[in-house]
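[09:14] KT: can someone run the structure on this one? pasting the chain below
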Amino acid sequence: MSTILREEIGIDLSGVVLPGDLVCPPRAAGLVLFAHGSGSSRLSPRNRYVAGHLNHAGIATLLTDLLLPEEDVGLAQRFDIGLLATRLEGITCAVSGMAQLGHLRLGYFGASTGAAAAIRAAAMTGGRYRIDAVVSRGGRPDLAGHDALAALSAPTLLIVGGADTEVLHLNERAYAWMSCEKHFEIVAGATHLFEEPGALEVVARLAAGWFATHLAGRRGAEPATGEQETS
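[09:31] RB: done, structure tokens below
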């Protein structure tokens, strides 16, 4: 593959066709599947910003909707972590069988409830495929449940805004339940959506560094200035 591939795809999961936006740079180092949060979509400007940063670093990305528009109608569906994780697992199996993508190492990037779905999916693979890295942005990993967090083996980075106090507390609790390789990064002064100047850039840089290290074995980006904790 000598030129960057940009393609809108549909992934058929037992009759439910989920739309996705695939970008694959030449000689991609890995593929990151994005799981957006409640009330958002694959068109989320924040996730697309991070995806663009990963593409620039030579990492392929796939942004998908885990719910159809007619399904995304209330909190019950948006917070059904089991359903979202099952959909993400199905998407992962589908892309693993694609000729142009099946050889790539896999990572998940989840935001809000999407982070819980990513952790649950990474923990429930049953050996069918391997997830080599997970990144959570302002996520709710606690919603994945204690069993999934304890079973998670993929190296996982939690990124939380320093001013997002409630989510920060929930991430600290989830972090304590994880036994995999892990890292906790607090972006000083950032709120839940990382709308403060420069905050989302820090998220993108941290994510690119984590995925570059764990998907391709490359040296990652420099750590952000701010509070951090390592396992």
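[09:33] KT: thanks! Confidence is low (pLDDT under 50) at residues 218-231.
[09:34] RB: yep, looked fine to me
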